[in-house]
Design goal:
By secondary structure, the protein is mainly α. The chain has seven helices and no strands. The protein has one domain (2-192). The protein has helices at 2-15, 28-37, 39-71, 75-106, 112-148, 154-167, 172-192.
Length: 203
């Protein structure tokens, strides 16, 4: 349930403002306009995102238990869990820094230079840094699913591996959206119980 909640809540949160987000390298005046116009929506979206990040940690804990049961050891489970915590930490940084810029803009205290500094820092944390953590999660989960022939359908496990590799590169900004869909699919499978290992029948 926490995996589904994480993906849905994060998508809703970002729908409030992210579609109007400038790209990297935006000018100071453009960013000042962005934060000033969308201040309230950015703050509301950030608060929802923080809740989704908390839910992500719960999901990671549940997934770790499943991976240990599938694998019989803790290597891939620990990689997935550690990657998720890394993504959560960098996500917290990205959301709170972006929210700080919006709050300053709402109070009329945001300058062009400060807007650029906060935006660029938030952007790098939210895409490049968080991508490393989510990439580790995707790689570990996809590998475990292929080896155990459980947890994910084979095609989705392969997609997870491709996404995992992409998320470790500068192309991570293009793979974060699909990775949320992967998280949603994993959450649904775990919720239905179809991804859980079952005991072998006794002879």
């Amino acid at each position: 349930m926490s995996g589904v909640g994480t993906a849905v809540l994060f998508l809703v949160a970002n729908a409030l403002w992210a579609l109007e987000q400038p790209g990297p390298g935006a000018s100071g005046p453009r960013l000042l306009h962005f934060y000033g116009d969308l201040s309230g929506r950015i703050v509301a979206g950030a608060l929802l995102s923080l809740i989704s990040i908390a839910m992500l940690v719960v999901f990671a804990s549940a997934l770790r238990s499943v991976l240990i049961e599938l694998e019989g050891d803790e290597l891939l489970a620990s990689i997935a869990f550690g990657g998720t915590l890394l993504a959560a930490a960098t996500g917290l940084g990205a959301e709170t820094i972006n929210m700080a810029a919006a709050l300053r803009a709402g109070d009329g205290g945001l300058t062009t230079s400060l807007a650029q500094a906060l935006f660029d820092t938030s952007y790098v944390l939210g895409y490049n840094a968080a991508g490393i953590g989510i990439g580790l999660l995707a790689l570990a989960t996809g590998t475990a699913a292929l080896r155990a022939r459980m947890l994910l359908p084979r095609w989705l496990a392969i997609v997870a591996l491709v996404l995992g590799v992409t998320l470790l590169t500068p192309l991570s900004r293009y793979a974060l959206g699909p990775s949320l869909l992967l998280l949603l699919a994993m959450g649904v499978l775990l919720l239905r119980g179809s991804a859980l290992p079952t005991a072998a029948p006794k002879a």
